[in-house]
């Protein structure tokens, strides 16, 4: 059987060297045929021009179809929708600037597994790249979608026809990906787990990492939870807690803070193993 064309979309805006890092990861993939779409939001830091100067010829030499555009848009999900509309592949993966595939054979290994004919969305495991360590995250079962994402969007391959029919809702600032997956789940679409580590995701400057309270608010909205007075109070308390922790962290020397985070992570992992 002839392999299906896979589309990878990267959105970026003033990402410094992170865009080049991600593009190198995609172009190094061994899978063919592969299409790569870069949607830049009109960067002013030179990151797009630097990355394209290096990667345009490299992609051509590797036999990868490269499409790229740099223009103002309405945010990350608008850029992702634009990338999806430009795609020609059967499956779409969104590997945003700063994130990378696990290794050069990731897509090949992922699609070496048997894919159910009616699958709408495929997903695997991922690794969170924190400032103090790499943290493996094993994907949850599809049933957990009723409450949360089973994995990161970087570890997903979405059927392109569905992505174009049901684009991301850009009224969500940080969880339009969860809204999309939740809508598929509620419609009874087939969502399949593939046991492959797909992505290494930057988890310091990502949207959900920087906007934790907003993420919870929008997730509740996706699930149709009424915005009660009690819920407003909970959000307010969470905002105060988040602000206090950030302020406290800013007072601690960076090396000491990273050491504390590593020790805390080790403690949590040890506790989880005992359960």
Question: What this model shows, in words?
Answer:
The chain has 275 residues and is an alpha/beta fold. 43% of the residues lie in helices and 21% in strands. Strands 1, 2, 3, 4, 5, 6, 7, 8 and 9 form a nine-stranded mixed sheet that branches. α1 (18-27) runs parallel beside α2 and α8 (212-222) packs antiparallel against α9.
Distance between the termini: 45 Å
Number of strands: 9
Which residues sit in consecutive blocks of at least 5 with pLDDT less than 50? none
Q: Which of globular, elongated, flat, extended, rod-shaped describes the shape?
A: globular
Taken as a percent bin, the fraction of beta residues is 15-25%
The largest β sheet comes out as:
9 strands, mixed
Give, in order, the helices and strands.
EHEHEHEEHEEEHHEHHHH
Number of helical stretches of at least 4 residues: 10
Structural class designation: alpha/beta
Radius of gyration: 19 Å
Mean pLDDT rating: 90
Q: Specify the helix fraction band.
A: 40-55%
Write the layout of secondary structure elements.
Layout: E1 6-12, H1 18-27, E2 34-40, H2 47-61, E3 65-70, H3 76-86, E4 91-94, E5 100-101, H4 106-110, E6 119-129, E7 134-137, E8 156-159, H5 160-165, H6 176-186, E9 190-202, H7 207-210, H8 212-222, H9 229-251, H10 254-274
Parallel strand pairs: 1-2, 1-4, 2-3, 6-9
Antiparallel strand pairs: 4-8, 5-9, 6-7, 6-8
Helix pairs in contact: 1-2, 8-9
Structure summarized in a few sentences:
Helix content is 43%, strand content 21%. The chain contains ten helices and nine strands. It has helices at residues 18-27, 47-61, 76-86, 106-110, 160-165, 176-186, 207-210, 212-222, 229-251, 254-274, and strands spanning 6-12, 34-40, 65-70, 91-94, 100-101, 119-129, 134-137, 156-159, 190-202.
């Amino acid at each position: 059987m002839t392999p299906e064309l896979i589309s990878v979309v990267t959105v970026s805006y003033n990402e410094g060297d992170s865009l080049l890092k991600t593009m190198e990861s995609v172009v190094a993939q061994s899978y063919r045929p592969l299409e790569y779409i870069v949607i830049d939001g009109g960067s002013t830091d030179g990151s797009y021009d630097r990355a394209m100067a290096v990667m345009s010829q490299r992609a051509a030499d590797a036999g990868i179809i490269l499409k790229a555009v740099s223009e103002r848009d309405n945010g990350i999900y608008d850029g992702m929708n634009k990338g999806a509309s430009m795609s020609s592949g059967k499956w779409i993966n969104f590997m945003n600037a700063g994130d990378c595939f696990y290794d050069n054979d990731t897509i090949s290994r992922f699609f070496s597994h048997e894919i159910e004919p009616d699958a709408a969305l495929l997903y695997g495991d991922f690794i969170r790249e924190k400032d103090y360590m790499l943290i493996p995250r094993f994907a949850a079962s599809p049933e957990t979608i009723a409450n949360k994402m089973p994995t990161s969007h970087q570890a997903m391959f979405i059927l392109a026809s569905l992505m174009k029919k049901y684009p991301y809702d850009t009224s969500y600032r940080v969880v339009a990906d969860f809204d999309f997956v939740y809508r598929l789940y509620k419609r009874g679409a087939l969502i399949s787990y593939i046991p492959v580590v797909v992505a290494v995701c930057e988890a310091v400057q990502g949207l959900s990492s920087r906007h934790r309270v907003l993420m919870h608010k929008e997730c509740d909205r996706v699930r149709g939870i009424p915005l009660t007075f009690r819920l407003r109070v909970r959000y307010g308390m969470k905002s105060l807690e988040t602000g206090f922790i950030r302020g406290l962290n800013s007072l601690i020397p960076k090396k000491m803070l990273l050491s504390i985070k590593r020790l805390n992570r080790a403690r949590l992992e040890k506790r989880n193993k005992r359960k």
